[in-house]
Amino acid sequence: MHDLTLEDIARQAGVSRSTVSRVVNNQPNVSPEVRKNVLRTIRTTGYHPNAAARSLASQRSWMLGLVLPRNTSSFFTDPYFPHLTQGIAYACNNHNYTLSLFLVGNEEDEKKISPRISRRGLLDGILVQSGQAGDKMLDQLTRSSVPLVVLGRPFEVDGVSYIDVDNINAAKKATQHLISLGYQRIGMITGAKTSTVSQDRHEGFMKAFAGAGKVPDLSLIAEGDFSENSGYLAMQRLLPLRPDAVFAQSDIMAVGAIKALEETGLKVPGDVALVGFDDIPVTSLTNIKLTTVRQPITRFGIKAVELLIDLIEKGAEPARRLILDTELIVRESCGASKLLGNRGDLRS
Amino acid sequence: MHDLTLEDIARQAGVSRSTVSRVVNNQPNVSPEVRKNVLRTIRTTGYHPNAAARSLASQRSWMLGLVLPRNTSSFFTDPYFPHLTQGIAYACNNHNYTLSLFLVGNEEDEKKISPRISRRGLLDGILVQSGQAGDKMLDQLTRSSVPLVVLGRPFEVDGVSYIDVDNINAAKKATQHLISLGYQRIGMITGAKTSTVSQDRHEGFMKAFAGAGKVPDLSLIAEGDFSENSGYLAMQRLLPLRPDAVFAQSDIMAVGAIKALEETGLKVPGDVALVGFDDIPVTSLTNIKLTTVRQPITRFGIKAVELLIDLIEKGAEPARRLILDTELIVRESCGASKLLGNRGDLRS
DNA sequence: GTGAAAGCGCTAACAG
DNA sequence: CTGTTAGCGCTTTCAC
Predict the structure, then answer these.
(1) Is B221 helix (H, G, I), strand (E, B) or coil?
(2) Helix/strand/coil percentages in chain A, nearest 5
(3) Per-residue pLDDT tens for A267-280?
(4) What pTM did the predictor assign?
(5) Is B319 on the interface with A (CB under 8 A)?
(6) Which of A93, A98, A101 sits opposite B89 (nearest CB)?
């Protein structure tokens, strides 16, 4: 059975190709009866328009690309990316776009993927995870003519549209919280210092101190890489310096830190208080109720897609940016409940 | 600057469109010098062929679809899916295919996604996660003319190609291991009973007993749904029945089970021995070294893609199946090291 | 080894 | 409201 075409449907319904096209695309200028008639033969024949032909003729593929660069090794270990991907997939679906996924594992992948992404006619728009400084892939994509939205602030923001959460304020709130609880030796476990996320959260940390008229002990800042193990190791390095509270730049690192503390027999928050970032369901990873900065990961993905579609439809110039708010979720690991006599979740 | 076409390159290189096409597609019948020449102008102009036009003319999109149906809610909580996706993405990349992702969240998604998948000209092949019994989407895809590989044994295997791990044998090995260690009250935490994975592992469990000339206590079989929490709850239900060993059908459920045991003050493996399934890095989730059945998740994804490509290139008939082997990884949670005086990893 | 020409199946003016 | 027509940019016979 040879595949059906518009032509076939037109013939069967006794109308022209254009009319069928109009019906398929839900366009006006078709009489109700003709439309109903055409719709019926489409249904009975099981006709589906050919995607390639449509893309070629309309210069629109209805396809969005999600590019996750190599440094995103935590794709498998950090629930962040699955959640993000889900939000993106959901939104694509909602807006009738198809999502294609480009996981760039190494340089070799990059070489094979790059030209594929650049092919005209394949993608109507691109979502790319903000990477480390000097990310070639991002540079290259930025130069292409396909509408682009960067997930997370990129290093070079000139002329590129991006979406991000307000990392500076978020980290500031988290740190202020610890300061206000009276902790005196507040440390931080950062992500890779070459990432903008980590830099922004670092800045928020500093701002909180500045705002309180205090100066942080910089030796209490340990670098991680957003992986759990790095949080574990960072906390081990921090321990001899006797911090009484630590702000971990991701929940997963906070979990690692907790492991390190438990191994040493230290209590959270009794001996060391902890605040995380993400609000990922870590309850499954540790029994400690983690105080954390909640970022709307799924919503982030949805908004990213909507921004991208807007750029596609209304033009990518001028570049736009969208910053989402976060929320400090006070639970037990920061010691607030004990110190202040509160119980359960508290939103500030 | 208007996008470049083959025509443009042909003109600039002083040859015909066909010749450029041959060069682009690495076909023979082009003299070395002409080829070199064309290649150069392609490079200097930064020409990239149009994907839609190519698909339309060649009836090949070089695009594969990965469909994860709604019951795959564990996409975010179980590392299994990120790993699988990574293997698939890697293999697609390697074979010059682009991967598109269809996460089917609910019925509404299904309605929007189905026609998109069925569109001719979009996908050269489809990978679909095996679902629950009566999965409409799978049924529908099976009926379509696009080559299809099901991930995991489907309910109806007639005429459909699929890839799976040898769940029966794997579960049998795991259970035999517990039996051989002398446990007398061996329980099991299953996945949803409507899934083939769970059914097969159930069968393996039974076979191990049969092979040992024993009869399992069926009341020690508790149903979960592959989520951690379900493992936790299942173990709570099991505890009053005093099992001395439990085979959890996934590592994540094993972790839940461990939580339940720890809460009750019971030791693993001292009070209850445990064997999991997957060999996911759960070390981050619990301090217990889990004895488990290792399944090659990433390789599973790679093999699935390769099988699908084979079907695309050599025809989908007759249906093929590929069963991957598993390996029992003996660590500490089964109590083997204590009972047998062994240490560390032991592969059976 | 190379080029001309005929589509691939659809959209989108433009007439009518 | 409907049909005619001209492409979209490439692949692929088929001559030469």
Answers:
(1) strand
(2) 45, 15, 35
(3) 989 999 999 999 98
(4) 0.92
(5) no
(6) A101
